[in-house]
Amino acid sequence: MRIVSLLPSATEIVCALGRGHQLVGITHSCDLPRGVRELPRVTSTAVPVRGTSREIDRFVRAAAQAGDPLYALDAPAIRALAPDLIVTQGLCEVCAVDERSAFALARELGDGVRVVSMTPHGLDSTFAAIEAVGAAIDAKDEARALVSGLRARVARVAEHSARVQRRPRVAYLEWLDPPFSCGHWGPELVRLAGGEEVIGREREPSRTLQWDEVTAAAPEVVLVACCGLSVVRAQRDLAELSARSFWRALPAVRAGRVLVADGHSFFSRPGPGLVDSLELLAHALHPDVHPPHASERLVPVAAP
Predict the structure, then answer these.
(1) Which of 95, 238, 248, 282 pairs with 82 at a CA distance of 20 to 30 A?
(2) Which band of pLDDT confidence, cut at 50, 70 and 90, is reported for residue 304?
(3) Rounded to two decimals, what is the model's pTM?
């Protein structure tokens, strides 16, 4: 089977199911696992990724208002790759190629090309998406085993979190300029990790905030996991906030409990990495209850 992935998390899923050797094309942003990085890239983006967060936000809003796509498919390249299966998503047109484009291209390529579209809003639907991809690539047993292991890890975190004496108030922010709440699986991760998400709502989209809403929520922990941004890139936005009085007044900032995550590799991708994200957050919130994650950590920001 020849597989084209139009979503970084789908690329990770295919590889986690032992079918990475069947990938023939990936997106411009697929980077995990490292072995996929030499594969042909079949998408591009119009988003000014080197711009400031404010510039990126304004560009995305203007494109949405004008009806302009943020991502383009390289149809000739995909045609030359002759895929049997295209894996895409129907959750967010800001994050990746929209599923309408994928289905339209599949129709052009002929009846033999199938499309699997992922639309996860939480951990359960993420696990269901993994099993759907597994069924499409003749890896049902592998998918069941992977999901079983992921569920067992989630259950261990939840069991440990049930023992915590006090759940801190958490504001998980997916963007800083302007601020965005977390959405979909984000609040669920906070809850399972032993926190109380004070702005985002489970299985609902993220939304634009005003800073006075963040101030009013009085978070004791702020998790910054900007969608698509590395730790270093997110820290640039945090540096600009550090002198602002409303920011310095937040309980989390005063206590030195601002945590920065790699939102490019963790938290934003609905795949196996969400469980890694959960374990990272759980240890950060309750290091006396949850063991450290094996390979990564959240970066703390020192109190002013």
Answers:
(1) 95
(2) confident
(3) 0.95
